[in-house]
Amino acid sequence: MTLPTPTPSPGLKQQEKVRSGARILAIALGVIGVIFVATRLSQFTAGWSNPSMTGPGPILWLAAGGFCLVGALAAANVGWMQAGARYTAGETMPVVKDAAAYLSDGRGLGAIGRTDGASGPFCRQCGVQAGAGDRFCGSCGTTLS
After folding, report:
1. In sequence order, what DSSP letters do the residues of 15-50 get, joined into one string?
2. Tens digits of per-residue pLDDT, 95-140?
3. What is the C-alpha to C-alpha distance for residues 102 and 111, in angstroms, rounded to an integer?
4. pTM of the prediction?
5. Contacts 24+ apart (CB under 8 A), 79-84
6. Distance between CA atoms of 76 and 21, rounded to whole angstroms?
């Protein structure tokens, strides 16, 4: 008896470390961006009327804060993408199943949306699920084993 070869997991190697790093980066960039924007926003109008001000002006600090906030959003998307994808799949799949059952009059599209109670094996030739007692595929006629 041979053991089946394991399928490689999708995603990056050390994916948990990448997600944790992205979450930390998102929080750090978010804090830095908020500090830049909050501290320089009050000085924004004062900088225009004070020509003796040296160094980067308040508008550059606001731009830097904005770029940090955009980077924080991108890192947060990477860090928490799996949770968002699970939520989206959980919300949309019941709708997809209902739509497939409605559009195909209960026959379904493949195995999605089938309402006729088929509980048998799937055909190895065409992929349609057969009834529990069927010996042949109702779609292509291949023998079911």
Report:
1. HHHHHHHHHHHHHHHHHHHHHHHHHHHHHHHHHHH-
2. 887 777 777 766 666 666 666 555 678 788 877 777 777 888 877 8
3. 14
4. 0.51
5. 79/19, 79/20, 79/21, 79/22, 79/23, 79/25, 79/26, 80/19, 80/23, 81/19, 82/19
6. 10
